Amino acid sequence: LGTGAYAVVDSVKIGTKLYARKSVFLPRYNQKSIRNTIQNELSVIRTLDHPHIVQVHLTYEDKTRFFIVMRPLADCDLEAFLEEHTQRPPTQAQQDMVWRWFLCLSNTLTFIHSKGIRHKDIKPRNILVKGDEVIFADFGSSHDFLDEGNSTTEGPAFGHTKMYCAPEVIANGKRGRSADVFSLGCIFTEL
Fold first, then answer.
1. What's the pTM?
2. Residue ranges per domain, the chain?
3. Which of 1, 64, 129, 189 is at 20 to 30 A from 100, Cα to Cα?
């Protein structure tokens, strides 16, 4: 279903239900760092109980990989959806769906921020499409600021996609929740 620098996503059937399974490779040289990223992502997702955010069903591991089984199993990500649907003019039903997505994604991002979380990597590949619904995914870069009382971070940003980054992220400047809003706005211009 998808691949990343250290992970592969495939589908898995448990009982009668299909789930997405993220297999994260644990190389010896930076296993501790990757485990910390995984634990951060799991902690964040478990904090965010929302219908438009992926949910963890279960986790397990073997000697070289950590597995996260999540729901829903999406049809595609927003990047693939846009590639497929920008080749021809949208139907009225598709236009109506996109307008609902604007509201849904905005409200969900407000919910994420209200829980003290910054996503930090909002881009079409990290938004899943399931039927006519959109779901935020991949919270591996996210930041929980609730205990700190401040959503602002600064310094080098890793793992971001420049096309969807706020100027302050690219400049390694101070950035907060508004950087997520900027990234979502970039996606809205593509929709």
1. 0.84
2. 2-71, 76-190
3. 1
